[in-house]
Design brief:
- It contains 6 helices and 3 strands, in the order H-E-H-H-H-E-E-H-H.
- It has 175 residues and is mainly α.
- It has 2 domains: 14-128, Ribosomal protein L17 (50s Ribosomal Protein L17, Chain: A, Alpha-Beta Complex); 131-175.
- Strands 1-3-2 form a 3-stranded antiparallel beta sheet.
- Helix 1 (14-31) packs across helix 2 and helix 3 (60-70) crosses helix 4.
- The N and C termini lie far apart (101 Å).
């Protein structure tokens, strides 16, 4: 019985699985997104998210722990210098899995796994810039005066255009 055994073995031995996840994690950190199967992506997410959380505290101890998993000095440097400051205020969920269809050869379900903060399409920059309007307070006195003045100018312009249209219509009927 396999009660309580949660890790997916992915059809590999323990050493092969550890090496594969380490290499996939290194590729993900270097390229910010990789294309793989859904099963491997889910296993990679479980593997890499604790490493990303550990990278938030830049200490010798956390660097050594991350290096023991990744075994690549350049990737560890990239993680602590560029990636960690971007994810510093995120409480978790550093990766996103986007399903892309099925592989042609064996019909395996494929996906794109990527770091959330490095995708411009799904970023929430526009949502962060909008402000919330409250019922209390309303507008400042200067803003009210400016909006009233601009609305009066618009009203004056529209009445001038309307009177110009009427005068051109009168000229046509006089002939």
């Amino acid at each position: 019985m396999r009660h309580g055994k949660k890790n997916n073995h992915l059809g590999r031995t323990a050493s092969h699985r550890a090496a594969m996840l380490s290499n996939m994690a290194s590729s993900l950190l270097l390229h910010k997104r990789i294309n793989t199967t859904v099963a491997k992506a889910k296993a990679l997410r479980v593997y890499i998210e604790p490493l990303l959380t550990k990278s938030k505290t830049d200490s010798t101890h956390s660097r050594r722990i991350v290096f023991s998993h990744l075994q690549n000095k350049e990737v560890v440097t990239e993680l602590f210098r560029e990636i960690a400051p971007k994810i510093a205020n995120r409480p978790g969920g550093y990766t996103r899995i986007i399903r892309t269809g099925y592989r042609l050869g064996d019909n395996a379900e494929m996906c794109l796994i990527e770091l959330v903060d490095y995708n411009e399409i799904y970023s929430n920059e526009a949502a962060k810039k909008t402000t919330r309007r409250s019922r209390r307070g309303g507008k400042k006195a200067d803003d009210v005066v400016a909006t009233e003045a601009s609305s009066e100018e618009v009203a004056n312009d529209s009445t001038e255009e309307a009177s110009a249209d009427e005068s051109s219509n009168d000229e046509v009927t006089e002939d």
